[in-house]
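Reopening this one. Same input as before:
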Amino acid sequence: MALSKLDNLYRQVILDHSSRPHHFGKLNDSTRTIEMNNPTCGDVIELELSVKDGIIKDIAFSGSGCSISTASASMMTDAVIGKTVEEAEHLAVSFAQMVQGNQLNEEDTDALGEAAMLSGVAKFPARIKCSTLAWKALGKALTDDEGKATAGQFHKE
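Same output, byte for byte:
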């Protein structure tokens, strides 16, 4: 496939996720919640997870953000639902490494699913925080002992 056709495919997937995000909304039975924002551009995410027996049974997000932020959150929800907490934490770390320009092994790239298409964000440093907001929120929600982070927490690199 020619590079321009591949770039167009990536753009289309990102636009699809940003205009029709997966798992957008609220959960009735969340066990972990967090709200974070990116003060440099105004992106805001409220992330809710239902974690049972160490497995992410359901996940939803709401808020507002640019197309990269929304698409990344949508792709993240697809990638982590059904995963163990440890697997999801690993994916969050892998995603952050990828968008900072680090090469991932094939297994980690495959595990990210469509989120791997955001690797090109590394070429645009100003967009890295947009793409990592949801993943940082996920990591924080999974590692917070009480399952609830302080509302309005700021996303920082």
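So the earlier flakiness isn't reproducible anymore. For the record, The chain has one domain: 3-154.
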